[in-house]
Amino acid sequence: MPQPATTASRYPNAWHQAEAADERAWLDQWARLHLIPVLEHPEPRTAAPVRPLIPAGSPA
């Protein structure tokens, strides 16, 4: 997260960049595990295979 320009930071800029990258990686991982993916074009539903009816008395 950017630091205000008016205050001096205790940590070097590289530390802040590493913290931001770690946070981004954690958030990305959390989102992959907890959010439902939204597809632009969902795949069309396919009908379940239908087994033909066997008339009564026929050998199966």
Write up what this structure looks like:
With 60 residues, the chain is mainly α. 37% of the residues lie in helices and 0% in strands. It has one helix at residues 13-34. It is rod-shaped.
Give descriptors for this structure:
single chain
CA-based gyration radius:
28 Å
Helical content class? 25-40%
In N-to-C order, the SSE pattern is H
Poorly predicted ranges: none
Overall geometry comes to rod-shaped
On the 0-100 scale, what is the average pLDDT? 81
**What proportion of the residues form beta strands (DSSP E)?**
under 5%
First and last CA, distance: 70 Å
Major sheet size, sense and barrel closure = none
Number of helices: 1
Structural class: mainly alpha
* Tally of strands: 0
